[in-house]
Structure formats: structure tokens, C-alpha cells
Amino acid sequence: MTPARAEIVVDLAAIRHNVRVLRATTGVEVIVVVKADGYGHGMAEVAGAARAAGATWLAVATLDEALRLRAAGDTGRLLCWLTVPGEPYADALRAGIDVTAYSVAELDEIAAASAHAGAGLTARVQLKVDTGLSRGGAPREAWGELFARARAGEEAGLWQVTGLWSHFACSDEPAHPANDQQEQAFRDALALADGAGLHPELRHLANSAAAILRPSARFDAVRCGIASYGLDPAPGHTPDLGLVPAMTVRARIALVKALVPGDSVSYGHTWTAPTPTTVGLVPAGYGEGVPRHASGVASVGVGGAQRPIRGRVCMDQFLVDLGPGDDSTPQAGDEVLLFGPGHHGEPTAQDWAEACDTISYEIVTRIGGRMTRTHVDTDPATRGEPATRGKPR
Ligand SMILES: *Cc1c(COP(=O)(O)O)cnc(C)c1O
């Protein structure tokens, strides 16, 4: 098999393990969030792994993602929450997807779709309330009208209100006062909905950080994205649950060369060798989603040690400092681990996030471009076909 120039390898056994850990830790339904191509891990493959680990519910952001997941064969409970006027609600209805309404206007659109979708089908609608993020969801002053309309539509047989939910702004800062305020606001919304005659089966508020750190916010279900991928939702606060990062990004060194003191490296000559050293050319750059912000600040794993990136990350390539040349200096063709679970001394996506002043979510979601992505299964008990070796993304 030809070694890949630069590739993403996703371990589906890690996804299954993480979902099981989250189910055991929270004791409630875990809605595994697979939006944005499964945070860069592959939506359909992650969905399959999550279902295998017992996830009754999955969630994506857009209706388009939900329909693609159905087209890929997923048949379980599936929630989406981000639409614009005119989206194909009738398709969602026929595909048994739970859509989210933020407003009466959205309910009216769903009602029209419901009328056209044919007899015997009832739309599944979840209501989202804004409890303080000021993003999606009905603002507090609109809750009464939204709930009244939702209940009226339910009585008219237009839909079934299957869920009521909201989303935290600051759950990665567990001591932030907004968390208590939002949870209280959510309880207010639940009481108001109950008074309006709505009794949704699924009440949910927590994302990964709150699911782990805030037991009072678990309600009927938690929505776990980042933790399902094995990454830390609240660095510095999360207890060690043994989550395993599922994504490894690796490349082969294209060229190794010696530098003498005074040689400068890459565009802008932002780094100059102070002493004799060797550099390795890594054939991945911001065209593969390697952040340009990693220039001169992130490290990669080579031969079990972490080695610094020197100079600017380019579109297609960057340079890693391999140290003074000797017999043990890596050669062209040797492997470089950009990030992974850390089992071989390589940095993690969290290390990259800290170096680049961002969050691990952005690191894993943006990586890709020209890299191939392969799904593997390290669990000997379920190791089957070598899933999708080297599939172009
Ligand atoms: C992305 C998202 C999640 C998942 O958040 P994590 O922090 O990755 O667990 C949950 N709910 C909503 C509304 C989201 O947009």
C-alpha cells in the first residue's frame, strides 16, 4: 500500500468508547452531535459508531446534513436545528427528522409542509428557547406565543412537539454565573410549556461541558459533540474520564536538509537558525487546514519526540526542526504525527488549539483539504473490513 502523503485517520473504536463513557457518566440519553462532517471525523462513519455504542439520538445543525445522513442509511432519531425560510420541511417530515422551531413563523412553515406531505405522517418538532446565549431560539418574551401555537398545532394533528431545549453560553467555565441563570431560565420555560399543555419527551440543555460538569442540567438528554470525539470540552475543569481522541493526522517527510547558523526559513524569514540544525519538509499546509497561526508555535511528533514547527506554515507545506543532524535524524519518507491521542508522544488537538489560540473544535473541524481520511477500528473484537482506506475527502 502506498503510504499517504498526508492523511487523517479516525479510530471508530475510540468514538464508541467515548460515547459509552458519556452514557455511563451522565446516566441519561446522549445525543451525539455529528454536525460539520462529524467535527471533521466523517459524519456517516461517526454516526454508525455512535449508534453501535447505543446512541438512540444523533444531532446535526442543518436540515441538509440530516437528509444526507438519512441518505447514508441512518434510520434512528435525528435532530437538526438550523434552517432558513423555504427549506424542505416536507422532506424532513417524510424522513422522520426532528426539526427545531425557534419562532411561530417557522411553525407556520412546518404546518404548510405537513399539509402537503401526505396523510398519516406527523411532523416531529422540537422547540428551542433562548435562555441567554442570544443566538438561536425564541427570546423569553416570545415563549408564551410559541408554546400556545405549538400546542394548537399539536391538537390539530399538524405535528407532535417532541422536545424542548436550549443551549449554554459558558458551560466551559463552570463557575460562570450565566450557567445558573440559564438553567433557571430553562426551568421557567419548561414550567410555562407544561402550563400550555406541552409535554415533550426530550428536554435537553447541556452540551459536552455541561453534560460532564453540571449534573443538574442533564434533564432527559445531553448533546455531546466534542467529548464524543475524545477531546476536552472544558480544559482545566474536566475530570479525567478516560476519553480517547479519535483523530490522528499524519504525513510523510518529503525532504530533509541541513541548515547552518543564519539560514532563514519559509516565507518572510520569520525564523533564522541560531545553530546548525536540520529541517524536515512536511507536505501539508493551510490548504489542508493546518492553521497558519501554528507558524512558529505548534509542534509535531517525530520519532516519539515533539519537534517545533519553524517559520511560516505555507499553503501546501511547512518545516519542522529535527535538531542537529546525526545517524538518528529522520529521513525523507519517515512519519510525522501532527496530532493524535498522544499515545506516541505526539501533541494533541488540544495542544494545537493552545498554540494557535483557539479551541480543539476548530482544529479538528477545519483539518482536511487535500488529505485523505481513513476510518480504522482498533478494537480487535469488531475489526472488520479496512473501512475506507485512503478515501479522498
Ligand atoms: C455544536 C452544538 C452542540 C455540541 O457542543 P459540544 O460542546 O461539542 O458538546 C450542542 N448543542 C448545540 C446547539 C450545538 O450547536
From TrEMBL:
The keyword Transmembrane helix does not apply. The modification N6-(pyridoxal phosphate)lysine is found at residue 35. It comes from the Bacteria. Residues 246-376 form the Alanine racemase C-terminal domain. The keyword Ribonucleoprotein does not apply. Pfam families: Ala_racemase_C, Ala_racemase_N. SUPFAM superfamilies: Alanine racemase C-terminal domain-like, PLP-binding barrel. Substrate binds at residues 135, 315. The active site is at 35 (proton acceptor), 267 (proton acceptor). Residues 374-393 are annotated as: Disordered. GO terms for cellular component: cytosol. Catalyzes the interconversion of L-alanine and D-alanine. May also act on other amino acids. Belongs to the alanine racemase family. This is Alanine racemase. It comes from Nocardioides psychrotolerans.
